[in-house]
Amino acid sequence: MAQLHLGQTIRFYGDPLVDGPEAARHDSRGGVLVQDRRIAAIGTADDLRAAHPGAGIVDHGARLISAGFVDAHAHYPQTGIIASWGKRLIDWLNTYTFPEEMRFDDPAYAAEVAGRYLDLLLANGTTTVCSYCTIHPASVDAFFAAAEARGMRVAAGKTCMDRNAPEGLRDTAQTAHDQSKALLERWHGRGRAEYVITPRFSPTSTPEQLEALGALWAENSGCLMQTHLSEQLDEIAWVRSLFPQARDYLDTYEAYGLLGERGLYGHAIHLEPRERDRLAEVGASLIHCPTSNTFIGSGLFDMGLATSGARVGLATDTGGGSSFSMLRTMAAAYEIGQLRGIPLHPAQLWWLATEGSARAMRMADRVGGLEVGREADFIVIDLASTPAIAQRAARAHDLWEALFPTIMMGDDRAVAATYVAGKAMKTPGA
Ligand code: GUN
Ligand code: ZN
Question: Which stretches make up the Aminodeoxyfutalosine deaminase/Imidazolonepropionase-like composite domain (predicted)?
């Protein structure tokens, strides 16, 4: 039976980063009709009630119905080491990340963490994520199986590394290619799963491995490819010494077939003009990871790239990022915008966390917005989830002023309900 969800609704007609906040549309008494796991209609509550008298009603009152959050870059295996103190990128990888990732050669551990991670996402209103796994194929199987059990649309891939990583966490050019290919064939397009070709970053791959993965991408050009780019200055200097012939960091990917419009480049903070131009020219996606960039001390992403039309997604980068919450991530993006003189409007922040990330992941035809025909992944936001937020929201004159305190101060308590393909995964009052 069709279900009609009533409440405030938020949707987008364009990209508010380019078109301004007017690209957002708010209905103070709207509705979303869900049928067969998809959005069948959207409009005002009155119109939908009249047009669909047989639908079951779920009334969310004054709460805000939105598309579920889309997290465009995360490392599910780092769930257990989130918020580890005091290191910068290379030390942080060696001290915390690599020892933890070694544990994923145990499929039972991988399954336990994958389930725990996805449940944390659902509690925080994130319905789609693009995650790195570890070098172990079983870590990929565990993740996709956990997502399938929850009905979630996810993208993920085996993280490939054949140098500058400890024994036990290295593959080879050949095994990276062959294992990625086998996983891609097993998972890509199965239910809601998408396989992502995943070289970790150029310091941990030999040119041979980058080339092998570039060849795999060329043969599977419908897949996404994800990696890291220009996150910290030390890292960039290291890349320069490892690839002396490269024009810049991006060239270490470009030279091996790893630059393309379905490429997701995490961080992308310290870009050279050539890199910026080239990324824009090919239509690649830059993924802004604001809590990670401050937590690991990487730098301030230039959101001016997005306002001038670059394809930008928003991401937690768990566990270099210090949160599982896209609300907290929006708050950090706002603060970094302020430091760079670009105060992002709440409509722009919300768009980045939903449709913008879906667009960066080339999934906006399926998720990321409350639009007819898209999959019914949506959340219900309580705009007064704590006393601190409630007292500020009570003074609001419009939706944006009511929503901004939740963006800045909200957490999983603000997510009253999470629906995946129309099914309640976190229920009102739970
Ligand atoms: N660069 C290469 N690997 C990683 C990672 O796991 N996290 C972050 N933040 N940066 C990286
Ligand atoms: Zn990352």
Answer: 30-55
